[in-house]
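Student: Hello, beginner here. Can you help me understand the protein record under this note? Any guidance would be welcome.
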Amino acid sequence: MNKLLGEKIKALRCLKNLTQEQIANEIGISRQKYARIEKGMNNVNLDVLAKIAKVLDVSVADITRVLDETPVVAYRVNEDEHSQEAILDMIDLFYANKHLYEKLTIDE
């Protein structure tokens, strides 16, 4: 979540042609702390978010909207072959265990 907010804040800052230092000075924090916010390394409380929004001339909702647009279940969006392979391996293992269970219960 912090990473998404940070990316959105960075994009809005770049649109306004502002530097990290300019925004940090305006909201009263160090440039390093502001940089960590953009990288998603620091939590952003509502007070700081409101200050950033004011400097960027946007609403807090404009920044946080990115959270609503992001899919909740990321693995369904990911088309990584390794992920698909792992899922197929799990299904194979499930059916192998099911078959073994049925064989053991029939023999009893």
